[in-house]
Amino acid sequence: MSIRDELQSTIDTLVQPGKGLLAADESGGTIAKRFKTIGVESTEENRRAWRSLLLSTAGLGEFVSGVILYEETLGQCADDGTPLPELAARHGIVPGIKVDAGKIALAHAPGDEVTEGLDGLAKRLDGYKKQGARFAKWRAVYNVSDMLPSRLAIETNAASLARYAAICQEAGIVPIVEPEVLMDGGHSIERCAEVTEAVLHEVFDALHRHAVTLEHMLLKPSMVVAGKEHARQAPAAEIAAQTVCVLGRTVPAAVAGIFFLSGGQTPEEATANLDAINRTGRRPWPLSFSYGRALQEPPLKAWKGQAANLGAAQQALIKRARLNGAASIGRYDA
Ligand code: 13P
């Protein structure tokens, strides 16, 4: 198969009406934080048990077309010895991989951050592909205040996202481009809209300069919302209107799909907001979910690290997946 056909076939499997993505790619530090909320220690065995539980959920493939994994998970196996990427594939779920190496402070730009991980990326992708990964994810984060993010942060992160995406496409791996405008802080929804528009504008400019084929990539943006500490939290209809307005101004119609992150919204909010977005009328791209916390929080609470709770946890996961599947086509009934 040519690289082009390979990319197209992955896109066709990932982008399906009524389906979204499960982000289960928490890094070591992040998964430890999530486990701490249920009093579970982050050992390799517990991480394996948790991620096998997620991927062995019967019927998950009905609402989830792809799963983003962390490097460690690619090499782990279910209890019966099936490699976890293969377990996902058996459920009709395409395995993907987080390839960025996390964020650090951006030099000479206090308060801004930049994502690392480009060195040796092409070689790493070869290895991930052999382990079954068909798509990748790279996350850039933008802190918001009256002054942040700086032009330098917007330009630097856009350049890295675009280089990453180009390297992925050359390797036959579909890139998910994730610029996350953080919800932390007291900024208004209008400020979030302004920052998101500037960020996405720069990201697509960089993608163009790096000759990234838009038909063979997915965008994973944050929704346009007020900062968590802002006094006024907008209702779903307003979040939807602001979000599609910004996306309409900045995202070319050629992009294969937009799969939102949940970014700290509650599971219920993330579903209601996605549904409201899909009720705003026809858009050039499918608008779906690529949720981490909004899909995993309820099953994590049900699991509590105990094998006896596996069934209850899987039921909680399938419930959120089903509701988000409905929201991705504007048919969620709260
Ligand atoms: P959240 O949905 O929890 O924001 O996670 C999505 C993700 O992949 C963040 O990088």
Automatic annotation (TrEMBL):
<comment type="similarity">
    <text>Belongs to the class I fructose-bisphosphate aldolase family.</text>
</comment>
<dbReference type="GO" id="GO:0004332">
    <property type="term" value="F:fructose-bisphosphate aldolase activity"/>
</dbReference>
<dbReference type="Pfam" id="PF00274">
    <property type="entry name" value="Glycolytic"/>
</dbReference>
<comment type="pathway">
    <text>Carbohydrate degradation; glycolysis; D-glyceraldehyde 3-phosphate and glycerone phosphate from D-glucose: step 4/4.</text>
</comment>
<keyword id="KW-0456">Lyase</keyword>
<dbReference type="InterPro" id="IPR013785">
    <property type="entry name" value="Aldolase_TIM"/>
</dbReference>
<dbReference type="GO" id="GO:0006096">
    <property type="term" value="P:glycolytic process"/>
</dbReference>
<dbReference type="InterPro" id="IPR000741">
    <property type="entry name" value="FBA_I"/>
</dbReference>
<keyword id="KW-0324">Glycolysis</keyword>
<protein>
    <recommendedName>
        <fullName>Probable fructose-bisphosphate aldolase class 1</fullName>
        <ecNumber>4.1.2.13</ecNumber>
    </recommendedName>
</protein>
